[in-house]
Amino acid sequence: MTVDANDLFSLYEAIAEAHRALRPEVSVTPLTYSARLSEMTGCHVYLKCEHLQHTGSFKFRGASNKVRLLPEAQRKLGVITASSGNHGQGLALAGKVLGVPVTVYTTTSASAYKLDAIRALGAEVVSLDMDPLSVELEAARQAEIQGKPFVSPYNDPEIIAGQGTIGIELFEQAPDLDAVFVAVGGGGMISGIGAALRALNPKIDIIGCWPANAPTMQKSLEAGEIIEMEEDDTLSDGTAGGIEPGSITFPLCQSLLTRTVLVSEEEIKAAMRNVASCERWIIEGAAGVAVASMQKMAKEYRGKRVAVVICGRNILLEKFLGAVQ
Question: Helices 5-21 and 157-173, interaxial angle, to 10°?
Answer without folding.
Answer: 80
